[in-house]
């Protein structure tokens, strides 16, 4: 800071605004070490760093100044003004004023005079011209000791370049005086720190460094505002932190704004961020990027543990049912259940439970192919077998009510062939699908920090692959509704109906949940696994728990003797007779009682009874002790 006449005003303004310790002052040689500039403003100026040209006191100049008065001064036109300002008086008399300058005033140290440090340079400047003129006279006027015409007409620019810049001599205080090619003398500066003397209330300037070709500064000796030793920072812009780039201000390369790169960007240079790209993330130092870990369902996740627990329980129960059926394979209730279809249905249930482990496994080409095959295959085995059963029951009772002709394709072998045909449709469709849309994996990026590893299949495509199973479920449900009023002894159709109604509810709830959770792969996969396991569990419990209950807890009811009693199929000509009908190798004795549906001989009564017995023999029935 060095604005002539404004230094004191700036310091006063800082004090007036209560900013005494807010600013750290750095001043040029215009301030230097002058005490009168900070008089009364010591607290504001505390800690100031000032510089001054290194100089010595010119001997004899103080004596000259002490003898100089307005009366003796003859050549300095500003001396009178200086005199009035120095003593604070007026040389001209003003009526009624006591500020007239007295005749005894002298410029001495006692009066507050202090030699200006630039006096040495003024004297050296005068001598520089004198030496240059002397050299010019000797060069241009060698034959005379005075000024000649050549010297008088010499070009000023040439004089400056050829003579003045080339002078070299010992100055008034003994220092070397010379100039460089641009006219600057040797730069010598003394650096001062304005501070309070420790233990006192007195302030002074202390030398803390110098400059002569290089900086020599003792920072430990510098005292800043409030007598602190912590070096303040004063910069246009601080260095940017890691992950920040410089946005340089237009027209000022020394000032910039630090702008952070986005979380997914790296720094390619100090002023440019670059996107790492999908699936990649920058290191902490933003120097380069690395591949993000792939996310997929982990076996230790709660989203995996729940469906795995359900599936494991279902697998154990399914294998238990298969074991019980295998052990009691020759008992009437197992035979009447249609052993072949029952085992196919149980296998389908088992496949559905096993699908959970495929859906939770790390996606890969083989796993993705097995997922697409397993889900549809398991469902088609369950609902294909159920459709075959309900269709058989419906055809037998429809035939019994309309004609005496025995319906076709009701033997166990035929039922197995029909079921396999229904399952093969799903198998062929899945194979075609696998050929058209090759199984594989893909990456999904719900956020910049997530990389989800998934099978290369759209959610819509996966549900479209289940359309055939939806058709089987719908058709099976229709047959379950049609056969809901058959005689109560043929009540497996009622359990099938309950199974299908519950399955429809599960699927109607599953579809919107599956699509609605697409933003969370864990919830979506868990929903799919639970829906598949629930569908299998409904079929397992509704269809097999009554049979297992009789086999295990009421083996006395697992006999051939049965009664058929219902008012639903009651005819206008009841009969009381007994019929013994053989189907294959199994003989079933059917005893009719009053109210048992039958037909007259003219209506083909014996054939109707045979149809009902055909229904009982390879399929479902209710045993009693009657």
From TrEMBL:
It comes from the Eukaryota. InterPro entries: ANF_lig-bd_rcpt, GPCR_3, GPCR_3_9-Cys_dom, GPCR_3_9-Cys_sf, GPCR_3_C, GPCR_3_CS, GPCR_3_mtglu_rcpt, mGluR. GO terms for cellular component: plasma membrane. Keywords: Cell membrane, G-protein coupled receptor, Glycoprotein, Membrane, Receptor, Transducer, Transmembrane, Transmembrane helix. Residues 587-611 are annotated as: Disordered. Its main location: membrane. It is a multi-pass membrane protein. GO terms for molecular function: G protein-coupled receptor activity. Residues 303-567 form the G-protein coupled receptors family 3 profile domain. Residues 593-610 have a biased composition (Polar residues). It is found in: Cell membrane. Gene3D superfamilies: 3.40.50.2300, GPCR, family 3, nine cysteines domain (2.10.50.30). The chain crosses the membrane at residues 296-322, 343-363, 369-387, 416-436, 462-481, 493-515, 521-544. Belongs to the G-protein coupled receptor 3 family. G-protein coupled receptor for glutamate. Ligand binding causes a conformation change that triggers signaling via guanine nucleotide-binding proteins (G proteins) and modulates the activity of down-stream effectors. This is G-protein coupled receptors family 3 profile domain-containing protein. It comes from Scylla paramamosain. The lineage of its organism: Eukaryota, Metazoa, Ecdysozoa, Arthropoda, Crustacea.
């Amino acid at each position: 800071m060095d604005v002539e006449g404004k230094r004191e005003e700036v310091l006063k303004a800082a004090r007036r605004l209560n900013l005494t310790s807010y600013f750290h002052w750095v001043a040029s040689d215009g301030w230097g070490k002058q005490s009168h500039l900070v008089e009364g403003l010591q607290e504001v100026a505390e800690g100031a760093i000032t510089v001054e040209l290194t100089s010595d006191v010119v001997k004899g100049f103080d004596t000259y100044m002490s003898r100089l008065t307005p009366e003796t001064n003859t050549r300095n036109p500003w001396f009178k003004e200086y005199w009035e300002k120095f003593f604070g008086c007026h040389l001209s008399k003003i009526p009624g004023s006591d500020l007239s300058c007295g005749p005894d005033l002298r410029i001495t140290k006692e009066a507050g005079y202090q030699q200006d440090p630039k006096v040495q340079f003024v004297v050296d400047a005068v001598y520089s011209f004198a030496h240059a003129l002397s050299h010019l006279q000797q060069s241009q006027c060698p034959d005379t000791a005075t000024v000649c015409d050549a010297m008088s007409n010499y070009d000023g620019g040439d004089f400056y370049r050829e003579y003045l810049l080339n002078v070299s001599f010992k100055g008034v205080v003994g220092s070397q005086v010379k100039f460089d090619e641009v006219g600057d003398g040797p730069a010598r500066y003394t650096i001062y720190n304005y501070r309070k003397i420790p233990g006192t209330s007195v302030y002074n300037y202390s030398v803390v460094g110098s400059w002569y070709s290089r900086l020599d500064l003792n920072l430990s000796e510098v005292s800043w505002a409030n007598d602190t030793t912590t070096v303040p920072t004063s910069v246009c812009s601080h260095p940017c932190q890691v992950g920040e780039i410089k946005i340089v201000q237009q027209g000022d390369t020394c000032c910039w704004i630090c702008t952070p790169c986005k979380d997914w960007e790296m720094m390619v240079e100090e002023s440019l961020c670059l996107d790492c790209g999908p699936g990649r993330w920058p290191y902490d130092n933003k120097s380069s990027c690395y591949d993000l870990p792939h996310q997929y369902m982990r076996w230790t996740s709660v989203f995996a543990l729940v469906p795995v627990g359900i599936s494991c329980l279902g697998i154990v129960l399914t294998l238990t049912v298969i074991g019980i059926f295998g052990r009691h394979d020759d008992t009437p209730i197992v035979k009447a259940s249609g052993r072949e279809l029952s085992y196919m249905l149980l296998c389908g249930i088992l496949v559905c439970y096993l699908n959970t482990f495929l859906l939770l496994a790390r996606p890969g080409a083989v796993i993705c192919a097995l997922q697409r095959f397993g889900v549809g295959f398991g469902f088609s085995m369950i609902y294909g077998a159920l459709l075959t059963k309900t269709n058989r029951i419906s055809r037998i009772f429809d035939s019994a009510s309309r004609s005496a002709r025995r319906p076709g394709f009701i033997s166990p072998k035929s039922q197995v062939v029909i079921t396999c045909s229904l399952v093969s449709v799903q198998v062929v469709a899945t194979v075609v699908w696998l050929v058209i849309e090759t199984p594989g994996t893909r990456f999904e990026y719900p956020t910049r920090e997530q990389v989800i590893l998934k099978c290369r299949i759209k959610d819509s495509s996966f549900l479209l692959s289940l359309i055939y199973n939806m058709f089987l479920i719908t058709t099976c449900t229709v047959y379950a509704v049609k056969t809901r009023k058959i005689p109560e002894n043929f009540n497996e159709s009622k359990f099938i109906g309950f199974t299908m109604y519950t399955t429809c509810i599960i699927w109607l709830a599953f579809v919107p949940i599956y699509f609605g959770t697409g933003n969370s792969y864990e919830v979506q996969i868990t929903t799919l696994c639970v829906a598949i396991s629930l569908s299998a569990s409904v079929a397992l419990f509704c269809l097999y728990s009554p049979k297992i209950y009789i086999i295990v807890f009421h083996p006395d009811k697992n006999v051939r003797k049965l009664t058929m009693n219902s008012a639903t199929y009651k005819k206008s000509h009841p009969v009381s007779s007994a019929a013994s009908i053989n189907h294959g190798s199994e003989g079933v004795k059917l005893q009719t009682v009053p109210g048992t549906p039958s037909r007259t001989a003219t209506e083909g009564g014996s054939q109707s009874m045979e149809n009902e017995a055909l229904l009982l023999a390879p399929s479902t029935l209710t045993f009693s002790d009657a």
